[in-house]
Design a protein that fits this description.
Order of helices and strands: HEEEEEHHH
Shape: extended
Strand order of the largest sheet: 1-2-3-4-5
Radius of gyration: 24 Å
Oligomer: single chain
Number of strands: 5
Largest sheet: 5 strands, antiparallel
Strand content: 15-25%
Length: about 200
C-alpha cells in the first residue's frame, strides 16, 4: 500500500512539474516574442530609421512603413522601399562588415531599375572615436558610393577599387566596403523576389 501511494505521489508530482514547465515555457515564449518585436521597433525608429530616411530623401512614401522581408537561407532580410516619381524603384537593406573593433552595420539603398547605389549609411559600430567613428559621423566615405553600380568593384583603391579610405582608418573603411559588397551580393541573389514584392507596394 505504501509503495502504491508513493507511486501516486510521484505521478502527481511529475504532472505538476510538467504543467508548470509548460505554462512557464509559454509565458517565456510570449515575453520573448513581445520583447523581440519591441527591440526591432526601437532599432527601426532610432538606429536604422534616421539613416533610411536620409538615404531615401525625396521619396513620396514612408520607407519605414513600406517594407517587407525575404528569407535568404536561414536569415530573414528586411527591405525598405522608396517611391520616386510614383514608382517603387529603390530598396534599402542592412548588412555588416568587419571593422577594427567589431562589426559595422551599413544600410545600402539601391535603385532596382539601374542597379546603382543611391547612397549608403553606417548604422552601428564600435570603432575608435575620432578615427573609425568618422565613417558614421562624416560623409567622406559614404559619398563615394553614390551612383556606383553594385557590379563595380566596391573596394578601396589599395584593393583594386575606386574608394578612398578615411585617413587613419583603413580597416574601418575596408569594413564599410565589405558591408556594401555583402549588400550587393544579397540584392543580386534575391532580386527576382524583391521585384515580385515591389509589385505589391
Amino acid at each position: 500500500m505504501e509503495r502504491g501511494s508513493e507511486m501516486n505521489e510521484m505521478v502527481k508530482l511529475f504532472v505538476i512539474v510538467a504543467l508548470f514547465s509548460g505554462v512557464a515555457g509559454g509565458v517565456l515564449a510570449t515575453v520573448r516574442s513581445s520583447t523581440q518585436a519591441r527591440i526591432e521597433y526601437q532599432q527601426l525608429k532610432f538606429v536604422k530609421g534616421p539613416t533610411i530616411k536620409t538615404l531615401m530623401q525625396g521619396c513620396s512614401n514612408d520607407p519605414l512603413v513600406d517594407r517587407f522581408k525575404i528569407s535568404d537561407g536561414k536569415i530573414e532580410r528586411s527591405f525598405f522601399v522608396g517611391k520616386f516619381d510614383g514608382k517603387a524603384s529603390t530598396v534599402a537593406l542592412e548588412t555588416y562588415g568587419k571593422g577594427f573593433a567589431g562589426d559595422i552595420g551599413v544600410i545600402v539603398a539601391i535603385n532596382v531599375e539601374t542597379d546603382n547605389i543611391l547612397g549608403i549609411g553606417v548604422t552601428t559600430h564600435s570603432e575608435t572615436p575620432g578615427l573609425g567613428s568618422r565613417a558614421k559621423s562624416e560623409t567622406f566615405l559614404s559619398d563615394q558610393f553614390k551612383g556606383l553600380s553594385i557590379k563595380d568593384p566596391l573596394q578601396l583603391k589599395n584593393d583594386g577599387g575606386a574608394i578612398d579610405a578615411i585617413s587613419g582608418a583603413s580597416i574601418t573603411s575596408q569594413g564599410v566596403c565589405g558591408a556594401v559588397v555583402n549588400s550587393s551580393e544579397v540584392y543580386l541573389r534575391l532580386k527576382s523576389n524583391i521585384l515580385e514584392k515591389l509589385k505589391t507596394i
